[in-house]
Design goal:
alpha+beta, globular
Length: 161
Amino acid sequence: MEQSREELWPYFTDPDVLAQCAPGCKEMILESPHEITAVLAVGVGSVKPEFDVDAVVTHIEYPESLELKATGQAPRNEFEMTASMELLEREGGGTTVVWEANADVSGTIVSLGGRALKSVTNRLVKKYFSDMQAIVEADEGAESKLEAAPEEKAKDIDVEL
């Protein structure tokens, strides 16, 4: 992206913007500066579960990195996930956004196979970043609202991958 890390940071840490960009997001609520709940509908073929998601920000280092852990529950489906994002300054200006997530998914959605899940996941990630870039370029404004959970709270989050 052409903007600096400092310019991008509010967009990637504003739940209202995140909700606009997240494919299938029906609702996103900032429960506290480090806790988010959401409802996400994800379709893989004929399986279209609606997940109730709980996420906790476990680490933030402004304006460089953010990590979170999340769990999602849907009828006959669930997931646990860890995700991290880094905003890297590019020589000559601009920022490279590096995003990584690891998830353990179980339930009927897995019955469709890894290839289908990977294809849908890649499509959703591309849509998320495309939508984020459009919002940033439209300069709609954003407010950084996320903070890392206190260390003792972050340790209590049990996501096993």
